[in-house]
Design a protein that fits this description.
Helices cover 72% and strands 0% of the residues. The chain contains 9 helices and no strands. Helix 1 crosses helix 3, helix 3 (35-48) packs antiparallel against helix 9 and helix 4 runs parallel beside helix 7 (104-119).
C-alpha cells in the first residue's frame, strides 16, 4: 500500500476519534508517522471490539499489559477509558499495583493476561484448564493474546517517542 493511500485511510479514522473523544490522542498523532502502524493498531482494536471480551475486560487487559510494559501513557489512557466503561477505581488501582481486582469479570482476564505474559504464551494444559475453569474460553484467551500484541505496539511506540500524556487522561 502506498504511503499516500494509507494516509488517506487514516484521516477519516482520526476524525472519527476526534468526534467520539473530543480530541485526537497524542499516541495517534505519533503513530501517524507510520500510517501503516496506525492502521494496524486502530483496525486491530476495532476488530477486537466485535469479539467476546466485554469493553471492561478489554480495558482491564490493556491496562494490565501497559502496566507490565511500564507504559505511563497507556496506563493513563486505559485507566481513563476503563473508568468510562465502568471499571471501578478500586479495580483500576489493583491492576496498577499488580493485584487481582475483586470484580470477577475483570479479575479473571487480569489473571489470564498475567499468565500469558509471564509464560510468553507457552501455556500448558493445566494452565488452560485452570483458565477455562475460571470461565474463559479459547476465543477469549486468543483475544487476550491479540490485545497483548496491540498494546505492545502502542507501549513500545510510546517508549520510543516519549509520548506526552493527554491532559484528558489525567496525570
Amino acid at each position: 500500500m502506498a504511503a499516500s493511500t494509507s494516509t488517506q485511510l487514516i484521516e477519516p479514522l482520526l476524525a472519527q476519534f476526534e468526534k467520539q473523544l473530543g480530541f485526537v490522542p497524542n499516541l495517534f498523532k505519533e503513530m501517524k508517522v507510520s500510517p501503516a502502524t496506525l492502521l494496524v493498531y486502530i483496525k486491530g482494536m476495532e476488530a477486537l471490539s466485535q469479539g467476546e471480551l466485554t469493553p471492561r475486560q478489554q480495558q482491564a487487559v490493556a491496562l494490565t499489559v501497559s502496566t507490565a510494559n511500564g507504559c505511563h501513557y497507556c496506563q493513563a489512557a486505559h485507566g481513563w477509558l476503563g473508568g468510562k466503561v465502568g471499571i471501578s477505581v478500586e479495580d483500576l488501582e489493583a491492576i496498577r499495583q499488580g493485584l487481582v481486582p475483586e470484580t470477577e469479570e475483570v479479575g479473571k482476564v487480569v489473571r489470564a493476561s498475567r499468565v500469558v505474559l509471564e509464560k510468553k504464551g507457552w501455556l500448558e494444559s493445566a494452565d488452560l484448564k485452570e483458565l477455562e475453569q475460571q470461565g474463559l474460553n479459547r476465543a477469549q484467551l486468543y483475544e487476550i493474546v491479540a490485545l497483548i500484541g496491540l498494546k505492545t505496539i502502542s507501549n513500545y511506540v510510546n517508549h520510543m517517542a516519549h509520548t506526552p500524556v493527554d491532559a484528558q487522561f489525567g496525570a
